[in-house]
Every structure is written in structure tokens, then in C-alpha cells.
Design goal:
By secondary structure, the protein is an alpha/beta fold. The protein contains seven helices and eleven strands. α1 (22-35) packs parallel to α2 and α2 packs across α3 (95-101).
Amino acid sequence: MAEKKVYFFSDAHLGATYIDDPRRHEQRLVDWLMSIKDDAAEIYMLGDVLDYWYEYRTVVPRGYVRFFGTLAALADSGVKIYWFIGNHDIWLFDYLRDEIGLTVVDGYLVKDILGKRFFMSHGDGIGKLKPSFRLMRWIFRNKFCQKLYAAIHPRWTIPFAHGWSSSSRDFEHYVPLENVDPKSEPLVQWAEEYSIAHPGIDYFLFGHRHVLLRHALQSDGEVLILGDWIRHFTYACFDGQKMEICSYN
């Protein structure tokens, strides 16, 4: 582990209908994963890796073959993979967990990694949420609602879900690092409060916001919002000594 590195990324939104070339989009992420296969000890995927996913009991949705195959190959080689549920790939149950051999995380995870303490979450459930968004999260996670949704034929649910995603996408959130005001970022504000009440966190890592940001907290530690794989193509890399934000071109 001392000679290995730990990688973090989020918000690839594979399968999104607003992506011009979905195959090239998926292949770019696959190429990056293959580029780190020899030195990766752990990979943390912090949510919205897929733009939409629903695991049915007996069938598997189409797509993502190259991506899933690459994850499986990495897992088989000993790389530990963690997939955080986001607000788009919310319906991850047991299929990918069991078939690939990864860990699904719903919510947040506080963990010691190479001597540092990490707080990791997709970020959609962090801080003060609008009542409408809170209600939507509850509906999506309700077991009875999930069963009702599963009873509808995928020919209706999948186009509906992708259409909803496309209509809600706000490309104004895709801003470069230098244009982000850390003090106005809700996740930074929340991390400032959390770090005071729970000292000892070295790194807060989030996705969700589609901004690329690194900010030192007033109390202690740092916040990293990981950008995305739509415009930024960014990830974080930690080797036990140094944390870096990198871009894959």
C-alpha cells in the first residue's frame, strides 16, 4: 500500500443524452482507469458515475460494457473500488456490487487512508436541502416507491429518466477553478462547520457540484470538489504524502 496511490473522481454521467459522443466519453474514462491500473490501491467514485441506472431483479440495462469490464478487471487484480451513490445513479443495489466486487456507499464515509482522515460523500445530501429536493430524495429511496417504479416497463422509465436529466442540467455550473468563490460554495460552508464540531478531518472530498475547487479550511483540513468528466476530466490522487488534483487529457 505504501507504494500505491489512491484515486478519487466523480460525475462522469456516462450515458447522458446531452453527451455528443457517448462511446468516446466512456472510452476516455476507461483509458484513464487503464492508465492507473498498475499503481492504484483504491479508487473512490464519488457519485453520478452513471447518468441513470436502475437495477432490476432479473435484467440488466444496456450499455457501459467497457466501463464495467474495466472495473471488474481492476477489482480482480486487487484494486479496492468504492462507488458512492449519487442523485443520478441512486438505484445501485447488489448487482454491480456482487458482479464486479466493489463496495457501494450510500451517504458518506469517514475513513483513514494512508495516515490521513477523509470525509467523502457525493454531496447531494449534505447541508441544508430545499424541501422539494428533500422530498424527492425520500421518494427515490423509499422501498415501496422503488417497487412501483420497477413495475413500469423500462421502455418508458429509461427515456423519461434521461429526459429529466437533460432538462435539469445547468451548464452554468461548469466553471473553471479560478472563477469559483469558495466562501459561496455550500459544501465548503458545511465543511467549515463540520470540522469545528468534528476536528481531525484532513480532507473533505465531494462531487455533485460540477465545479473544480480546492480550499483550505479556517479550522483545519482541506475541501476538494472534484469537478467532473464532462468538461473538466479531473481527478484527485493521494500517495500518503501529497494530494494532487489532476486532469486527464
